[in-house]
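Inputs:
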Amino acid sequence: MTDRDEILRLLLKSKPMLCAYMYTLLENRSLVEDAFQETAVYVCNHWSEFTPGTNFKAWFRKVAEMRCREIFQKEIREGKGRAKVREHLLRQIPDAVWDRCGDFNSERKDALIKCLEGLPTESRGLLVRYYLKRQKGEGIAAELQKNVEAIYMSLSRIRRRLKECVERRMQGEAA
Amino acid sequence: MSDPRERTDKDADFEMLLERYLDGKLSDEDRKTFDEMLQSDEVHQARFVETLVQDQALDESLRELAGVDSGPVADTATTSVEATRPREQAAKKGPLRLTPWVNFAMAAGVLVTVGFVIYGMRQTDRTRDRIPAHLTALTGPPLEVLRGEQTVFLNKGDAIQTGDKMSTRKGQSSVLTCADGTTLTLKEASTLSVSYQNGSKHAYLKSGEMDAQVSKQPEGKPMLVNTPHAQIVVKGTRFTTKVEGESTRVAVTEGSVMMQRPGKPGRELKRNQAASTAGKDELKFEFTRPSDAIVLFDGKDTSAWVRHDGHSLPTQAQVARAATCHFRLVDGALEAAPIRSAHLITRRFFHDAQLHLEFWVPRESGIDSGVWFQFRYGVQIATPDHPYRSPNYYTGGIGVKAPDRQVTEPARTWQAFDIFFRSARFDEKGRKTADARITVFLDGLMVQNNVAFPGIDKTLYQKEGPEPGPIILDNSHGHPVRFRNIWVVPGQAAMQP
């Protein structure tokens, strides 16, 4: 395997962490997707700039941050203003926390998919609206004739439940 | 489960804010509270990162699942790239449809032009990838194209596919024409990959040279040209990209492009501007000669110049009778004659002008020369021991002001001035209504930015007035400074780079 292949493998492995990181800057899911594509292109073309043995996650974050800034500039230039670039929030989170808590490897993802399959239909329906249809909390609340706070509460509960389920499965696998 | 402490009300508040945050509905006040909670609490920080990461993974996983889900979103949210799921998951999950990124993971190992191929992996783009681009001209043997893992040979008229990586041989050139009329001319011994993403053209020039004539691109979908050293964003323009060794040079002949080094701020290159990458530094910027420029000196012909003694503005009649060029021709350059105050001036008079000239200083000290406009205003060429001992008289200085930065090169190095000079303006009664202004680039770096001359230079004698005048190579001291590659665009002073 070449170094580049290795770096690309690491990049894909770090995708959830990187996208989360970029979300703190852009606060827009579609733009995050674009930013990750741009990051991947950059990494493909400039993988040799990475110094082996150094923190690849930190390097990816740096590259990703630059792409976010470019997207931000572009949004401003084109007068769309969808991107925010909230420096403040990002600075609150130390690098070490990103490194420690940002891991979401393929085993975890497999576990997550299993957990998703085990969710009650109603919960799954909510996630589908929220993620796949990109509906906002308010929109879902209106459709389901519920309070938006109740929707948030449900989402929060589902997230926690999924997290616990993933942890359980991971521990089960490790055992 | 990973929260080691008990959940408190504060945690519940935090969770609620986190949900609002993920939904993009945090009010300013909420945001403040949220920030504070994050700042002070490592558990919250960890929860924040974990939740965000899980959120991203959820987004992706749901998309994957939707491929087998017969629910209402299956048609809107899935891609239908038929491919085999990589690794062990395939066996476990059966015929899942793939997200582009899983597919990319597979492609990464085998394809050479990964950077661009990933764009082609989106199904929605696949259909657009069939937007025809054809090989419309070709010299030499069939063009060698790496398509996926296969090498194919294309002839004139053949279609280009997304991800194609084409290589011309020595002496060979090819022209690609896209449906919108955009043409890419790949010169000899060059390697280019092309692809589309959401209707946006992407090209990667790995080596060699390419001329691009890009039709106006759809709003928000510029064409992107990458090289190993730079990215060029194109909305519709004509330019040439050349990758040579460790450097990429881009020259724009029409429209504008945005060029940038990885991780550095971009620079817009307009018509007749060029930039090249050099090492890890910023872009090296230059002005190229526009087609409407008047060449004042091309290395041989000195007929645009005459001798003029003294420091005042001659009349056109005096110029017509003046002696021909008295500067010596040395290696394609004009070397100032060792006769004090025998200046070299243009036959033609100019008002506003963009002037390009290159100069060469023979030694590290004792040099005082420059270029003047109308015998009123000047830009210095001097060594730092200039008798006035003022940075205003360093190279790039304009008497009233020092250069914004010193661009020091050792003696006997060619340096370039690009000067945008705007004459002073006068009303019909001869009263000055606007000062003369000047913008000076030294070796592509701006050293004077639209600076006003409150009056004439103190070393010059011609009083301010509306009459145009020649461009003067200052030879007050007879120092053997050399000049070459001199051209001027009359009336170009308004151009702010």
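The first helix of chain B runs from residue 9 to 22. Flag for discussion at group meeting.
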